[in-house]
Amino acid sequence: MTVPVTIRIQDADFDIAAEITAMTKGRTDIGAVVSFTGLCRGIEGDDTVAALTLEHYPGMAEEEIQRHADEAIRRWPAVTALTIVHRVGRLVPGDNIVLVLTASAHRQAAFAAAEFLMDYLKTNAPFWKREERSGESRWVEAHSRDDAALARWSKD
């Protein structure tokens, strides 16, 4: 069976419940859906974030995300569906940024695949982030904690 994969990069917000319904409608093989939603934070350390602007390379970003979705399906054959929605554009605190949904007959594969995909999206997906704080704008650097999270999925 081919695993249905939905990947969208969009400016518009998404509806988590509608995305879960679209993924599971008419499916009796799904016993677990794991969802992760990333939100734009308004506080970072001791500073306030006014907005976050996300940019991407159209076409390449979708292709790279698809490649990692395929890897998740290969690693966890019990996965029965995947949805990844990533927003771009200017977002303010509280806005949804990313949604990862993974489905499987049982929870273990769905949890593992969701974590794997989020670790990839956080570190290597072709998105660039610019924060607005205190009247200044700066590009967001990668964090070593995110690289460490991704490293646990490396093959020996």
What's the topology here?
Blueprint (H helix, E strand, L loop, with lengths): L4 E6 L5 H9 L7 E8 L3 E2 L2 E10 L3 H16 L3 E9 L1 E3 L4 E9 L2 H17 L3 E7 L2 E4 L4 H8 L5
Helix pairs in contact: 2-3, 3-4
Textual characterization of the structure:
It is a single chain. With 156 residues, the protein is an alpha+beta fold. The chain has one domain: Molybdopterin biosynthesis MoaE subunit (Aldehyde Oxidoreductase, domain 3). The protein is 32% helix and 37% strand. It is built from 4 helices and 9 strands. The strands form 2 sheets. Strands 3, 4, 6, 8 and 9 form a 5-stranded antiparallel beta sheet that branches. α2 (60-75) packs antiparallel against α3 (107-123) and α3 (107-123) packs across α4.
